[in-house]
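Hi U.,

Before I forget, here's the chain from the pilot set. I'm dumping it here mostly so it's searchable later in email.
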Amino acid sequence: MTSKGKDQASDGFIMTLTGKFLRGDLKWGMLRFLFLGGSAGILFIAAFYINGLWRYLIVPLLAGWLAFMAGVLYIRDIYELDNFWQAFRYLFAAFFGFSYPHLSVYGGQKLSQEGEANLLNVIGGPGIVFVSPGNAVLFEGEAAPTAIYPEGSHFVPRFETIQPIALEDQYGELESISAITRDGFDLKVGRTRFRFRLLADRQSGRQKNPYPYSVEAIYDMIYNRTVSEEGVGDWGSGVAGDIRRVISGYINKHTLDHLTAPDGSGSDPRGDIQRELHSPVFSNALRRRGTEIISIDVGNFEIARKEVEQQRLNNWRARWTGDARLARSYGDAQRLAYQEIGRAEAQAELLISIMHALSDVNLRDGTRQSLRDVILVRTAQLLEAMGESASKNAGELPESTEGKNNPK
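Structure:
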């Protein structure tokens, strides 16, 4: 290596060392504190032995103090902090490496004391984050994500922010879903509950890591969130929006009767929605959010307007009443037909019996009176036999019923 190369290497090392001393965290901040504190202590001691040195110390000390206070006011103004001492503490911790702000991540949320804004949440690093089991945290730099850390205590460098990630199964629900059916009626779907989780790394076993995660799934979950007028939505609201679109789309494609009163052809609207929510198409859509669905319970269908429901009941009542009247009329017609058939059979049997009686009588030797008597007698016998048969048939049912109810 030439002397010029050595000089460039030494200059680069000095620049790197100077940059770390001026902007480094943790031990570099403590070194700055020791350096400035030691320098100030030496100057104060020297001031007791050198006359007139105090007048030369006032200007640099006052300039340093004013520069520090200007930085505190700038931080308070740029991040809109209500508390002056929060900005003072942040700048002191960032410069001297003491009293770093702490933040906890639990249940996929940042936890801080009530009524006080956490500096790690508002500004970012430097600070320390405590990640509970079942969670992870994504560190974001000025231009891109820098690292992903699981549970434990981690230091957040300056100019970096954190994004909490829940690795446990998540629960969500939709209170009500309103949509218009294909025939133009308003329909509501009751409370829909669902469970989802982050896509896991299938190659890592759960025995070693009870909460395996995929780096690509975390990036998809963080950077594919929905954005609205209210700001960036959270993970659960994005999944709920996808489920809402599937259910609303199914309602838009079917009629009110198909959804609320399916026929007996085996149609199951709620089952069809369940199958569509577990279809490969919807699963691939959730994969773009780094998410997979565990279970979904679709709510009941409710008609929004009560008068529509009442009119549908009236229509059903009219249809069933008409069907009942038709069935009753058909039964009455059959009963009359059977009665006429029975009467005709009785008349035919009477005529046949008379004919048999006449065949046994000698018409040449008999008189008209004897012929009349034979016909009357035969008719009377036939009517008496028919009456006995009818009474016997009518008495069979009560007699058998009494025997069953009162066994001897």
